[in-house]
Amino acid sequence: MTRFELEVSERFLRRTFEKGVGRSLSKILAELITNSDDSYKRLGATGSSETPGKPRVIRIVAERAKRRFSVVDQAQGLTVVEMKERFVEYGKESGDAKRGYQTRSLFGKGLRDVLFTQKFGVVKSIKEGKSAIAEFGWRARKGTERRPTIDIDPGPKVTSEFRKGLGILGNGTRVEFQLREDVPFPRHEALCDRIRNFYMLRVINMSPSREIRIETHDKRGEVEETTIHFVPLRGEVLVEQEATLKFEGLEFPTKVTIQRAPGDLTQGEAGVEDRVGGLLILDEDGNALDLTLFKYDRDTLAARIFGEVVVGGAGKYIRGKLNQDPPEEVLTEIREGLDRKHVFYKQLAALVEPYLGPIVDEEEKLRRKPAGSFSERTEERLSDAMDVLNKLYEELVGKADRGDEFRGRKPFIPAVLACIRNELAITEGVMTPFALLVNTSAIPDGTVVKLNTSSADITVSPSDFAVSHEDAKDGLLTKVSHLIADHAGAAATITAEAPQGKAVASIRAIPETIFYPVNGMDFDPSSLNLHEGKQRQLELYVDCEKIPIGSAITLSVDNPSIVFGKPDVETREVHKITDEIACIRIGISGSGIGNQGKVEATHGPFSAKAFVRVVEKKKGAPPPPRGMRFKRPVFEDIPRKLQTTMRSDGTVVINMADELNKRYFGTDPHHAVESELQCQVRLAELVLDECLNEIVTKAWGRTLRQRFPDDPATDIRMYVAQKKFEIGPLFHDAFVTLYVRSTKTDAAAPSQESGTAGVSTALPESPKDLRDSAAKRPS
């Protein structure tokens, strides 16, 4: 047998190193600063006392002319042997935790990720009067392929001149690198801001025992120096709670502190490097793991929220996962916090979000909003327009949260695991809930249940979850995953499996829309717009196991202006979509615009209700609503550099602090939209863009094929443009109406042929016209 050693390409190795820090100077310097901080921690743990009232200094030197950065400390220093132990084996844990040191080192990669991705890197160190130097670079091994190499050698004799050149007084280390050309060299003030705010450095920047000095040398040789600190935020304490995070059979004592700042803070919209607000997630050693508000990360109602979540045992858990075979990442290697897909993050979110929810709800009441409201007619048009987007959301992403996912099946306690339905039909391309029941007395807390599909044509997400006894009720835990099928006719077996047992369900995809009624029968959708004199159809879904084929169903409505095609209907074999579900289409019409009524279908103890209304017929009117992800837009002053944003509940927020929005909507946006065409168009475009971005982003890689997987930004932008082209006219037809204003014109009245005598539909032609128009509107 001939054995070959795997050859790894230079390109792959460079991408591996770059994965951690990329072109982010904040992440690059954070790795080196935390290394120095760890060295100071080890020094303190060995009994070397720090001078009372005098912090240990970490010095950053930025030389613009040479594009060179240096990070200098006066900590332990390194010998040649120690350099070999720490630098040569990539990915090896430092072992500090085993020695009792409370350091951050997790991946065992940080310094090498930095020095192997920049143009030049060297570590110079002095320890016990001797120097050592390690040079990092790429050198040819054979042909054109190069390999990362480290030259480690004793340095020159330690003299006062040598110490002065390194800036090291006793023991210490200086790490130098030349910044790549594609990484911008920041101004001094910008560099200070980045280092001050970056979440990974937040604890170090607040510590009285550390001092970070940034020293910038410009091209003329002038020096600017700043000592930076992150001043702890102050605010009203809203939550201060001890809790326990439980999963995988483990318990993590957790302290949650949530505060409200006097004003808005930058949150998730600013990105991980510039964010100020949010909850700082810390492990038992005070190491920063993340800065997040979980599902409220970009919700403008959470803009004032900040605080801390200290999770005891998190650091130990993360190290354990990295050291297992195969290793598992709880923290992202790209230094952007916890992995959002990992069970640790999901369980932590489930613990903290119930504290955040009521706070966000309360903030909504405190928000400064423009006075006024829309007329009932405009509210109806807005509702119709949002229905267009909600239907697209359901088609591409899935149904919005509709409460009870069991659809009429009563939960029971299984022996171990059970599917609420052993056979399930789903609509092609529509994400459909799939309920699983867990007996918590048979499965230990923290046990991971995996869900597998027998066919790639039907996918299930999430593909696993951790059993949480805390979330169970009377020994029963219910978990809802989601299924999606690529095409009609697809079939698969979904297996939910734990060490203690498994459950199996047969899934098949059909082209028709299917709805599982909760109580024997249900209308879906439960509301419908009628056009005067024109018959439409209500869809009544019936559970044939409760209401057998051949059963008579009585119909009634509380308004005589609304009538059925037939006064009653009967379930027939032709109505069946599956063996257990039938869909009866009921003709209904109405007269008198504005009339509305409640429809009721009954059979014995079973009943279903729907709401209908008669509205003005509009060309291209959208079909009735299916989901309710998006809600009607609201106007608010938001001190953010954005024109619109989306709340976590699906409300589109129009930012009245935006200058362009002010020009269009003035001081009374409701009146502006009611009365001026250009304002209706502006609002329609803002809402379309915001909602389509969310729909496409969520659907990309699910129901929307990844055409350019290496360039998601371009692919998503192109999909948004495509969907806007497809449904834009429907949205505008539903909401935008041509408004005409009376004018005092005798000399230049339009011709009678135009049909608009005495009116004007001219729009402002310049920003000045828009401002003047806005200024004239009543406040």
Strand proportion: 25-35%
Alpha-carbon distance between the two ends: 87 Å
Helix/strand structural class:
alpha+beta
Number of strands: 36
Tally of helical segments: 15
Major sheet description: 8 strands, mixed
Spatial strand arrangement across the major sheet: 5-4-3-6-2-1-7-8
Shape: globular
Mean pLDDT: 82
What is the helix content?
25-40%
Describe the model:
The chain has 15 helices and 36 strands. The protein is an alpha+beta fold and 779 residues long. The strands form eight sheets. An eight-stranded mixed β-sheet has the order 5-4-3-6-2-1-7-8. A hairpin with a 5-residue loop joins strand 11 and strand 12 (288-292). The longest helix has 24 residues, at 343-366.
What key attributes describe this structure?
single chain; 779 residues; alpha+beta; eight-stranded mixed beta sheet; five-stranded mixed beta sheet; 15 helices; globular
